[in-house]
Amino acid sequence: MILTDKEFEVLEKLTEGFGFGKLQDIITLKKHLEKHEYTIDDVECYVQWKKDAILKAQEEQMKKHKEKVKPSKDALTKVLPKCPQCNALLEIIPVRVKEGRQNVHGYKSVLRCFNGDCVYEKYGREPALDIVKGLVGAVHAKILGYGE
Ligand SMILES: [Zn+2]
Predict the structure, then answer these.
(1) Model confidence over 77-112: pLDDT tens digits?
(2) Which residues surround ligand 1, an ion (CB under 5 A)?
(3) Structural domain boundaries enclosing 115
């Protein structure tokens, strides 16, 4: 089919965002598809199918990662010391203040009750990192945000 100069100008405006090289690629693709009895619509379906597959793979990856991290938190919950006053779990917090006037005993950690209504806390000289490492191991301690 032959278009008028006016129609070619309209077509030029419609396709100018794609660049001339891409237009030639599209023509090559169209001929290639026709040879194998496929259409541009089939390619559109394929692109959607591929996007779905990639998304599904990413979700799968994320789920696996979450499962990998989760057991460590469960592990800590199982082995955390319990509050002697209310039996809630104790939080292990590093003491950042160096031994001196503000920390005369040289405390390096504090066990504090998770229960907001309980005021139990116990200071100690063992570093928080060492306590957590002793409970869940070095790798899990790092995942949980303890350590260097
Ligand atoms: Zn308590």
Answers:
(1) 778 889 999 999 998 999 999 999 999 999 999 999
(2) 83, 85-86, 88, 113, 115, 118, 120
(3) 80-144
